[in-house]
Specification:
It contains 16 helices and no strands. By secondary structure, the protein is an all-alpha fold. The longest helix has about 35 residues. It is globular and about 60 Å long.
């Protein structure tokens, strides 16, 4: 019989792969066919996708607060229903207005089903082992793109993009919705009495803390880098003089390195505090980007960058899930994590657009890596400033609050 913790991780591992794959990764494969059939340009197609990320960012904190209060069972089940409706709407849209409407609903579905909601659900259901459970979940979910990019390509070749999205809508209804309901109820939390010490910030207390904003900006700068490179790494390598096959081969290192980074976090750094692991993560990326900026015409330098970039991105996902709990406590984890994630989702939406503008300009192949290096350096300094002064005394006590 499965333990409650293994049941929760198993359910969320499947639903995270399915949700990331159908809501996020499938679009990169299907976007050209969508543009052709709807008669819209790439700017419009990707603007709607970016808009969905903005919607997800705005909804992240309220969704996290709902999970804190009620648990993830019904919140994430509602997300599966919203996912199915949004994907079905997208499959049937015929005008740009309808297309944007579908992505608006999908953006809400992202907030209800993806990492922040899943992490908050784990925090409620597996209180003692939440950091290890989050690490395990990201290890499985890291295979979403590996599974869904080729799967989407194969289904699209047989059925077309509309039926592909319809099939993914059915996946959300038939598999993810019942699995989220199967999560079951969470045990009620004991009340916090006014004269009892507590180990958690409220959302309002966290937002007033300088550490919160330093972390939010540090995460946001990193997500901007990853978002820009997710869309433009292969075009950038082509502009730097690498052949299409070499560019794809080098970029393909990123996915396995994400998984390798997460395995390293689970083994080599399993007893380290997330603050310490985060220092390594934030310090790694600037070195990789500097190698890309200065030596990007050489394959070995690009390979080095892809290794460092992939490992950093893989472990950063875990840090985003475990560090808020370590710094601000578990009771209001969902709301605080959602609020921290909101600027990052805005950066995720802006990254591809700003990256395209830089890359299309004069000397874009030099300016883009250097600009991203500056962002990585800024994020490192913000992170170090955030975690350095944190002491046990920084956690509020209700007797003084």
């Amino acid at each position: 019989m499965l333990s409650p913790a293994r049941k929760t991780i198993g359910i969320l591992a499947f639903t995270q792969i399915a949700s990331w794959g159908s809501l996020y990764y499938a679009f990169a494969v299907l976007a050209p066919a969508i543009q052709r059939e709807l008669g819209i340009g790439a700017e419009t197609a990707f603007a709607a996708f970016s808009w969905s990320l903005l919607v997800a960012g705005v909804a992240a904190a309220p969704v996290g607060a709902l999970v804190d209060r009620h648990g993830g069972r019904y919140v994430m089940a509602a997300g599966s229903l919203a996912s199915a409706l949004g994907l079905a709407w997208l499959a049937s849209c015929a005008t740009p207005a309808s297309y944007f409407g579908a992505w608006t609903l999908i953006g809400l579905a992202m907030a209800l089903t993806l990492y922040e909601a899943a992490f908050a659900t784990i925090n409620r259901k597996i209180e003692a082992g939440a950091p290890r459970a989050i690490s395990t979940l990201t290890l499985f979910a890291g295979f979403a793109s590996t599974i869904f990019w080729p799967l989407t390509l194969a289904i699209d070749a047989r059925l077309g993009w509309r039926d592909t999205f319809l099939l993914y809508a059915v996946l959300q209804l038939a598999a993810c919705l019942p699995l989220h309901l199967w999560l079951g109820r969470d045990a009620p939390r004991p009340p916090v009495y006014a004269d009892a010490p507590r180990d958690s910030h409220t959302l309002a207390e966290a937002i007033r803390h300088p550490v919160f904003w330093k972390l939010a900006l540090a995460f946001s700068a990193n997500v901007f880098i990853f978002s820009a490179l997710a869309a433009h790494l292969i075009p950038l390598l082509r502009v730097l003089g690498h052949s299409a096959s070499t560019a794809v081969l080098l970029a393909a290192l990123v996915g396995p390195m994400q998984v390798a980074g997460r395995i390293g976090e689970r083994t080599l750094a399993r007893d380290r505090a997330p603050q310490v692991v985060g220092r390594f993560v934030f310090a790694t990326l600037p070195f990789g980007l500097l190698a890309l900026a200065l030596l990007g015409t050489r394959a070995w330098a690009v390979a080095l960058f892809c290794v460092l970039y992939g490992m950093s991105n893989g472990v950063l996902t875990i840090i985003r899930g475990t560090l808020p709990r370590a710094l601000f406590g578990p009771r209001h984890y969902g709301a605080i994590t959602g609020a921290l994630a909101a600027p990052s989702l805005l950066s995720k939406a802006a990254g591809p657009l700003i990256g395209a503008a830089i890359l299309s300009g004069a000397a874009g192949q030099v300016v883009l890596p250097l600009a991203l290096f500056g962002c990585a350096l800024a994020s490192l300094l913000l992170y170090l400033s955030a975690v350095k002064p944190v002491r046990a005394a920084d956690v509020p006590d209700t007797a003084q609050a």
